[in-house]
Specification:
- The chain has about 250 residues and is mostly beta strands.
- The protein folds into three domains: about 110 residues, Structural Genomics Hypothetical 15.5 Kd Protein In mrcA-pckA Intergenic Region, Chain A, CATH 3.10.290.10; about 55 residues, Ribosomal protein S4, central domain (OB fold (Dihydrolipoamide Acetyltransferase, E2P), Beta Barrel), CATH 2.40.50.740; about 50 residues, SH3 type barrels (Roll).
- Helix content is about 5%, strand content about 35%.
- The protein has two helices and 17 strands.
- The strands form four sheets. A five-stranded antiparallel beta sheet has the order 3-2-5-6-7, with no helix packed on it.
- Strand 15 and strand 16 form a beta hairpin.
- The longest helix has 9 residues.
- The N and C termini lie far apart (about 60 Å).
């Protein structure tokens, strides 16, 4: 009898080997929820249930958290998410209107995943980073944002003005473009990955690197700091367009 190999990856995840970016207790139990495939990589996101129970500590058990999620009372980027494994990541808004709770996921204090309270007026606003841009039929441009969104660009913006690494301020869930911020000197950038995640500074210049990702020179509180261009997100000009820190 021939034994067939397993198909697909493991659906289980042990707490001890969960991503280091997850600031959760490691020894209170053996297992933790593995996030579903979604808009963010596992290292830069957390499943809804873990956020509500382990991070925000709104519920003491998985059963309680799952019940609220299944009832559609938890919104991510303005949409009810009934999958308790749904991943929430960079710049996502998380809200529970019944509890008058409105949060945004931002990098902070060397953590790529941190939740801050935001005004109710900002719960439908989100900054997204442009990660891809290409032509589609009809002479139009399509861009892909860091959270997996694909948007067709027509007369709203000049497609030639949008570059990879720029940011768009959009409304969620209807995806109306409110502002475009270029990744250029004078823009305000925030590091979202690595030991300096959460640090915010003004771009002085972008330094090309041979055979590597360009470096961005940042002015941070009077000092100079360098970061990889693919590890920053543009959040505004003189000040952030929305709340991005506590």
């Amino acid at each position: 009898m021939v034994e067939l190999g397993k198909k697909g990856g493991s659906r289980a995840l042990k707490r001890l080997v969960a991503p280091k970016t997850w600031r959760v207790p490691r020894k209170i139990s053996k297992w933790i929820v593995r996030p579903s495939p979604g808009p963010h990589p596992m290292e830069l996101s957390m499943p809804l249930l873990v956020i509500l129970r382990d991070v925000l500590k709104l519920y003491s058990t998985a059963k309680e958290a799952r019940k609220v999620i299944k009832a559609g009372k938890v919104l991510v980027d303005g949409k009810p998410r009934r999958d308790h494994k749904f991943p929430v990541g960079l710049m996502d808004t998380l809200s529970i209107p019944d509890e008058e709770l409105y949060l945004r996921c931002v990098p902070y204090n060397a953590r790529p995943i941190h939740f801050i309270a935001i005004p109710k007026s900002e719960v439908n606003l989100k900054i997204c980073r442009v990660i891809r841009k290409f032509n589609v039929r009809g002479g139009r441009f399509q861009i892909t944002l860091h959270d997996g969104r694909n948007m067709l660009i027509d007369s709203i913006l000049d497609p030639n003005s949008i570059s990879i690494g720029d940011s768009l301020l959009i409304t969620v869930p209807d995806q109306e473009i409110k502002a475009h911020i270029r990744a250029e000197a004078g823009s305000l950038a925030m590091i979202f990955l690595g030991d300096r995640a959460g640090i915010k500074g003004v771009i002085r210049k972008i330094v090309p690197q041979p055979y590597s990702v360009p470096l961005v020179e940042l002015k941070v509180n009077g000092t100079t700091m360098y970061a990889r261009k693919d590890r920053i997100i543009i959040v505004g000009k003189e000040r952030p367009l929305i709340k991005v820190e506590p």
